[in-house]
Amino acid sequence: MRDFGAMRGAPWTVGDILRRMLLSWLTAVLVQYLSLRAELRGLEGLEGLAAQSVLLLLGMAAFLFVLLSLLARRFETLRLERWAIFVVFGILMITSLRVSFAPRYLLACLMVLGVLGVYAWRGWCGTEKAVRQAGDRGRGGRIWTAVFATAFFIFVSFWTVYRVLTYRAPTFDFGIFSQMFHQMRTTGLPVTTVERDGPLSHFAVHVSPIYYLLLPFYCIYPKPVTLQVLQAAVLASAVIPLWRLCRRHGFSAGVSAGVCLLLLLYPAYSGGTSYDIHENVFLTPLILWMFDGIDREKRWEALLCGGLTLLVKEDAAVYVAVVALWLILRAWLRGCNRWGLVTGGVLLAGALAWFLLVTAYLSRYGDGVMTNRYQNFMYGGSGSLFSVILAVLLSPMKVIYECVDREKLSFLVLTMLPLLGMPLWTRKYERYILLIPYVLVNLMSDYPYQHSVFFQYTYGSIACLIYMTVVNLEDIMASWEPNRALFRYIPLGLAIAISGSCFASVVVPKATGYFDLYQNNREEYIQIGEFLSQIPEDATVTATTFYTVPLSQRAVLYDVRYCSREHLLSTEYVVLDVNHTSSYTLYEENGEDGYQNLVKFLEKNGYTKLDAWEDRLEIYQKK
Predict the structure, then answer these.
(1) Cα–Cα distance between 150 and 569 in angstroms, integer?
(2) H or E segment and range at residue 200
(3) Are 151 and 216 in contact (CB under 8 A)?
(4) Residue 58 burial (CB < 10 Å; 0-12/13-18/19+)?
(5) Whose CB has fewer CB within 10 Å in the chain, the N or C terminal residue?
(6) What values do phi and psi take at 124, rounded to 5?
(7) Mean of the pLDDT values across residues 521-529?
(8) Does the CA dihedral 145-148-151-153 come out positive or negative?
(9) How far apart are CA 320 and CA 297, in angstroms?
(10) pTM of the full structure
(11) What pLDDT does 4 receive?
């Protein structure tokens, strides 16, 4: 299919500009990389990045861009430019593999090279089919989707509630949110004492006003378990916008229900709840609603959901900005669609403005932006996120190398294989912009929790991956001839089967372990609850990490491991888990046991043992 703006004499179309920018940048990267001394070409460290110049890179890229544009005015260069991108990346791949060879890196490079090869051979798919709304009412599919969502809600609720009932939910982070919601209910403010060892608004750590949407439901039954159930409800609700997206793209009721099932079985979707509620759970449904507003060209819906997404967390601006960039680029490439340009522009401006506002607020009044999760890209002693952007410009091969680090391979398998790789199945390459959150948030970082399916950092990426799956699946199904219609369902069927297998083998055993634990020790947990009930509800308390959650319904609460001795002695009660040795590391002195030293310290300062439970739990009261 003809590339957009392919005619000679019109070298300034958007497609041509982007192609030449890519070729110019990669060529400049190659020239700088080859100019490095051999010992600086390795991708494992940061020395090679520090030895390169961003200004030189941009200067060379600008010169090459002008040169390519001038050549295009005299010659037909479209195919030559496409193949040049393929060749330049191939040379970069070979030279970098010579000094940083790893099978996983080789495989990743070959995959990128394969995508570039398809582009060089067949070009960009410039056709845009008219989106057709499914004609049938889809009552059966709606029912099945509701059944799937209800089952998911019950599964996640039981899993996470039993974490609380078995005293397996720690201070960080569920103890923080439990106390925060108690304070929001009683004072209206998200103030905690347990998070930073003293009274502090949680919004000084993460700006997440979206939590106030849950407050009315929490007030109905103000207990920690309520938050776990609300988390499950928020995640299950994502099937509503996803169903609408599927129907908007012409899927039958059965296929739409199948896509919703695929999301609910996706290992990272339910797996992300394993560390209790976090604000990130709002990202998937809100971003899918934003996509729904975009696809239906309802600006108010897209902007409203984009705005709500910004309220999830300070870094949620990344997701809104990426969606906005994709929308703007799609509008430009598809004939300067005014609706897309305006909507995308407003979303992008809002995301940038909000990000600058909240980061300035956090820097001045809070903990600042957490930049330490990208140390593998911060070269030259810099601690700024801007250096990460510069590192990406200087060395795209470093990005690929870090994305397939050994510890990230299982994450890659558990996030791409269940979708059968469908987010990558497209020649409408502007869609690849929606992969940025997946690469930036989950793969580039060296913070281990960001590339685990059992933590909350995947929810924004999941929304983008699922949307890409929907639109690419639409193209795949449309490409099959009518007499082979049955084959259209194979990709979705395989994806559901693989996702279900991963869910059953990876997620279910982890979840059911808490249920089994509670059933086998039910009387013990009831006794612990009765033991802790001796502490008055309005008393100030310091406790070890797994007992802050059941004691979180109070204004003053500290964690033994993280609080100062001053704050420890300011509380009326201290609850100690005798066997949780890591809570007492601050009190280990001269090789002596930290727990014993803490007990002596408490007794020396007027505390006496109020009660003990089976030599495992102790309550000390200040006289």
Answers:
(1) 47
(2) strand 200-201
(3) no
(4) middle
(5) C
(6) -90, 140
(7) 97
(8) negative
(9) 16
(10) 0.95
(11) 40
Residue type, 296: R
Left, alpha or beta for 469 (phi > 0: left; psi -120 to 50: alpha)?
Answer: alpha
Q: Taking CA 313 as the corner, what is the angle to CA 409 and CA 348, rounded to the nearest 5 degrees?
A: 90
Residues near 526 by Cβ (< 8 Å), separated by ≥ 6?
A: none
Residue pointed to by tokens 């056709």: 127
Q: How many CA atoms lie within 13 A of 58 on its CB side?
A: 7
Closest CA to 25 of 95, 112, 72, 84: 84
For residue 76, which amino acid is it? E
131 has a pLDDT exceeding 70: no
Question: Is residue 591 very low, low, confident or very high in pLDDT (cuts 50, 70, 90)?
Answer: confident
C-alpha span between 560 and 548 (Å, rounded) = 10
Going along 455-571, which residue ranges are E strands? 541-543, 557-559
Say which residue the tokens 């430019």 belong to. 81
DSSP result, 366-417: SS----GGGTTT--TT--SHHHHHHHHHH-HHHHHHHHT-GGGHHHHHHHHG
The proportion of the chain whose per-residue pLDDT surpasses 70, expressed as a percent, equals 96
Matching residue, tokens 């601006």: 317
* DSSP secondary structure letters along 221-283: S-SHHHHHHHHHHHHHTTHHHHHHHHHHTT--HHHHHHHHHHHHH-HHHHHGGGG---GGGGH
Contacts of residue 85, defined as CB under 8 A and 6 or more positions apart, other chains included, come to: 19, 22, 23, 26, 116, 119, 120
Say which residue the tokens 């020790």 belong to.
Answer: 521
Q: Tell me: the pLDDT tens digits for 234-284?
A: 999 999 999 999 999 999 999 999 999 999 999 999 999 999 999 999 999
pLDDT in tens, 146-190: 999 999 999 999 999 999 999 999 999 999 999 999 999 999 999
The single-letter code of the amino acid at 205 is V
- Taking CA atoms, 311 is separated from 4, 180, 203, 233, 350, in Å, by 37, 17, 11, 19, 12
Residue 365 in contact with residue 203, Cβ under 8 Å? no
Provide CB contacts within 8 A for 79, sequence distance 6+. 120
